[in-house]
């Protein structure tokens, strides 16, 4: 059966507006479409393909597990899930792991756990959740309400209650909002969808101290910032702050859908049998691929390489911007970078993305004013150089059309 981009308009719900080309094959940081055109991938499936496309280690893990065991349900446990959980707890602050299928599901579990913990330990009054404007935590009704972007949560009827927001990096506003009725604070240690906003170190430390003071659980949403993305295994490790609960997904599976919630033994005990679950969560296929992904990424050479590649991006982007004057700053950390547009190009991030696609470069946006890059953590330096050459051509075409 031959399908084209037009097929999308005929059979798919119109909640996405995908590019006109249809990718059919990928190797490393290169992708080919139906017409055989080659693209360089700076999008990484939105920070998912942390080891690029069809990494031989991941292909091997998937095919090996695919010939053994696919699915059991949580009436049974399985070896890949146990090995992956063991590695996650060995290499992070956590002692317990819950597996899900996505970042939104991991965040949903974290929020439900925080509410249950507070209810059982302190009583019904302790239910307030604080999160941050421009935050993004998923698309379930609970997580999208906690995410601080009303455009995503409005228009679906009454929202879950006792959720409040304040501005990221505004410690005074946060201190005024948190109290003894607060059960949890959910934050990204590097805001992704909200525009690639790095946290002020004093802000993060202040949030941690105030959470401790008010017996509120600090939940770090590391769905986008985790698994080597910042040059640390998890971003909290570079901030000198330890959360009570951490969520991870995206890069965790290297392209295979999986999410996880990590926490301590004391907090975890409040999710007793029957309180929460997931049919596919922790299935052997996903966990086998994620375990291999974890093994490859959790390597000092790979993590140090992320920092070196960040510097290459920043150096070349600075040269490009000196010529074309389109960015006010390059934001982010590691290989989660945002090119913030200056006042002359306000609101035109999508034009830069479309022009990049025309130049055979895949990239992303983070809001209307930021072009986002989240490439493979092992992208070769030659692909970074070539991709940024294409990006410069895209920039030139947008500037010329202005």
TrEMBL record:
Pyridoxal 5'-phosphate binds at residues 103-104, 136, 221-224, 279. Its cofactor is pyridoxal 5'-phosphate. Keywords: Amino-acid biosynthesis, Aminotransferase, Arginine biosynthesis, Cytoplasm, Pyridoxal phosphate, Transferase. It catalyses: N(2)-acetyl-L-ornithine + 2-oxoglutarate = N-acetyl-L-glutamate 5-semialdehyde + L-glutamate. The modification N6-(pyridoxal phosphate)lysine is found at residue 250. Binds 1 pyridoxal phosphate per subunit. It is found in: Cytoplasm. One of its GO terms (molecular function) is transaminase activity. It comes from the Bacteria. N(2)-acetyl-L-ornithine binds at residues 139, 278. Pathway: Amino-acid biosynthesis; L-arginine biosynthesis; N(2)-acetyl-L-ornithine from L-glutamate: step 4/4. It holds the Pfam family Aminotran_3. Gene3D superfamilies: Aspartate Aminotransferase, domain 1 (3.90.1150.10), Type I PLP-dependent aspartate aminotransferase-like (Major domain) (3.40.640.10). Homodimer. Belongs to the class-III pyridoxal-phosphate-dependent aminotransferase family. ArgD subfamily. May also have succinyldiaminopimelate aminotransferase activity, thus carrying out the corresponding step in lysine biosynthesis. This is Acetylornithine aminotransferase. It comes from Alteromonas gilva. The lineage of its organism: Bacteria, Pseudomonadati, Pseudomonadota, Gammaproteobacteria, Alteromonadales. The gene is argD.
């Amino acid at each position: 059966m031959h399908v084209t981009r037009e097929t999308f308009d005929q059979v798919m719900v119109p909640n996405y507006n995908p590019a006109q080309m249809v990718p059919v094959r990928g190797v490393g940081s290169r992708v080919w479409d139906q017409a055989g055109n080659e693209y360089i991938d700076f999008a990484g499936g939105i920070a998912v393909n942390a080891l690029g496309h069809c990494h031989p280690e991941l292909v091997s893990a998937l095919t090996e597990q695919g010939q053994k065991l696919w699915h059991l349900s949580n009436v049974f446990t399985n070896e890949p899930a146990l090995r992956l959980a063991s590695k996650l707890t060995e290499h992070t602050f956590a002692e317990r792991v819950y597996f899900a299928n996505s970042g939104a599901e991991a965040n949903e579990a974290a929020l439900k756990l925080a509410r249950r913990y507070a209810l059982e330990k302190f009583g019904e009054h302790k239910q307030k959740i604080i999160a941050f404007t421009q935050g993004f935590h998923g698309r379930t009704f609970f997580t999208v309400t906690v995410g601080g972007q009303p455009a995503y949560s409005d228009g679906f009827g009454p929202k879950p209650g006792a959720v409040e927001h304040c501005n990221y990096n505004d410690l005074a506003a946060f201190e005024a909002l948190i109290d003894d009725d607060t059960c949890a604070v959910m934050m990204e240690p590097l805001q992704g969808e909200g525009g690639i906003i790095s946290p002020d170190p004093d802000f993060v430390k202040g949030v941690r101290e105030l959470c401790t003071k008010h017996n509120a659980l600090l939940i770090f949403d590391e769905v986008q910032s985790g698994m080597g993305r910042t040059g640390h295994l998890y971003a909290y490790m570079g901030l000198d702050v330890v959360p009570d609960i951490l969520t991870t997904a995206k890069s965790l599976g290297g392209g295979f859908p999986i999410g996880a919630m990590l926490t301590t033994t004391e907090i975890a005990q409040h999710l007793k049998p029957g309180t929460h679950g997931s049919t596919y969560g922790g299935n052997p296929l996903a966990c086998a691929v994620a375990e291999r992904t974890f093994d490859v990424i959790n390597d000092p050479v790979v993590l140090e390489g992320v920092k070196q590649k960040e510097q290459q991006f920043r150096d070349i982007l600075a040269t490009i911007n000196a010529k074309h004057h389109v960015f006010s700053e390059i934001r982010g950390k590691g290989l989660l970078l945002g090119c913030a547009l200056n006042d002359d190009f306000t609101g035109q991030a999508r034009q830069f993305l479309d022009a990049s696609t025309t130049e055979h470069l895949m990239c992303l946006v983070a809001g209307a004013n930021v072009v986002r890059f989240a490439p493979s953590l092992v992208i070769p330096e030659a692909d970074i150089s070539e991709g940024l050459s294409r990006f410069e051509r895209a920039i030139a075409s947008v500037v010329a059309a202005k």
